[in-house]
Specification:
With 350 residues, the chain is of the alpha/beta class. Helices cover 36% and strands 15% of the residues. Strands 2-8-7-6-5-3-4 form a 7-stranded mixed β-sheet, with helices on both faces. A 4-stranded antiparallel β-sheet has the order 9-10-13-12, with helices on one face. Helix 3 runs parallel beside helix 8 (245-256), helix 4 (86-97) crosses helix 7 and helix 9 packs parallel to helix 11. The chain starts with 26 loop residues before the first strand and ends with a helix.
Length: 350
């Protein structure tokens, strides 16, 4: 069949999401979802009456949810932007601040960054990680271009301190710095409080991981109202009703149930520490993680083969083919039972 794709996008290397196979039951440790259900308050909020209201458009401004997020983090509604997942927040930012301009992000990081860079036509610099897979903040100081950093980084799980993030933001006052905090709740230091101090900082978070709403698709940004207005201009240019009615309700109920959130996060942190100990007992090298996953490899073992052997045994983890990390596995932290299953299957293999 003849291709009708415009030439600019014919070579676009699209993002590859984690696999969602249905051929058998798996212990699913490949897409960094929470092993716990959403807050009970979410279920209370989504009533039959609210489902009937799906015939009506959602609030394009998401006022109630933005107010709840703003109150939780100590900001005003004008400092909050909602996205259909944090991926949409990233899209708004790339279009608003990178299109036709220059940006920089780590060479090994979230796979959507190079995709968005190519999509919007930005000149993207990919800074290499250090030998220990950490981010060298000197690569991002006074760069004169938009800076995008995942903190904690993915897929390594390694985090920068808030002080280091502030150094980057302060040295790039004429450019936007976006800190993608999808995993910050599991042990990282959030830069949210720095938004009070810097008008060039965007902090992006998600409800997909720590708040158990991956399927609801909800993310948000906190930034100076001027940056929020810029990204809103992009949003209203192509998807004004981007958050559905039920997700708005679920998000508000979730952000207000702080006790449930903190309990689940603490359990995942404990399960992560347990998993690291068990992997290290078996000779795995595990990078220090502040996320709800670990990045691990075992000397003498091919990463892809290990991934396939686990899959055969009903355990899904994530494998990346990029040369420098091809022998690593990214393993989502689930329940203790799930992690014990992973360890037992690894014992069968190795």
């Amino acid at each position: 069949m003849k291709s009708f794709m415009v030439k600019r996008y014919e070579g676009l290397d699209a993002y590859t999401p984690g696999e969602q196979p249905r051929d058998m039951e798996y212990v699913k440790l490949n897409t960094n979802e929470s092993p716990f259900p959403p807050s009970p308050k979410v279920l209370e909020a989504i009533t039959g009456e609210e489902v009937e209201k799906l015939k009506l458009y959602s609030d394009p401004e998401g006022k109630d949810l933005r107010d709840a997020i703003a109150a939780h983090y100590g900001y005003k509604r004008e400092n909050v932007l909602l996205g259909n997942g944090s991926d949409e927040i990233l899209a708004f930012a790339f279009f608003a601040f990178c299109a036709g301009e220059k940006c920089i992000f780590p060479e090994i990081s979230y796979g959507f960054y190079p995709v968005y860079a190519e999509l919007v036509g930005t000149d993207a610099e990919k800074a290499p990680l250090c030998d220990d897979f950490s981010i060298d903040i000197n690569d991002y100081m006074n760069v004169g271009k938009t800076v995008i950093i995942a903190n904690p980084n993915a897929p390594t799980g390694m985090a920068l301190s808030r002080a280091d993030v502030e150094k980057i933001v302060a040295s790039n006052k004429d450019n936007v710095v976006l800190i993608d905090e999808a995993y910050v709740d599991f042990g990282g230091e959030s830069a949210v409080e720095l938004v009070h101090k810097y008008d060039n900082l965007i902090v992006c978070q998600t409800f997909s991981k720590s708040r158990s709403l991956a399927g609801a698709r909800l993310g948000f940004a906190i930034a100076h109202e001027g940056l929020i207005a810029d990204m809103n201009r992009i949003k209203y240019s192509y998807n004004p009703y981007n958050i559905n009615r039920l997700t708005l309700l679920a998000g508000k109920a979730s952000i207000e149930d702080d006790g449930y959130f903190r309990k689940n996060v603490q359990t995942i942190i404990e399960n992560r520490e347990y998993t690291v100990r068990e992997l290290e007992k078996r000779g795995f090298c595990v990078l220090p993680s502040s996320a709800n996953f670990v990045f691990a490899r075992k000397d003498g073992k091919n990463g892809e083969e290990l991934y396939l052997e686990l899959k055969k045994r009903g355990v899904l983890v994530r494998h990346f083919k990029k040369e420098r990390i091809k022998d690593f596995l990214r393993i989502t932290i689930g329940t203790r039972e799930q992690m014990d299953t992973l360890i037992s299957k690894l014992d069968e293999i190795i």
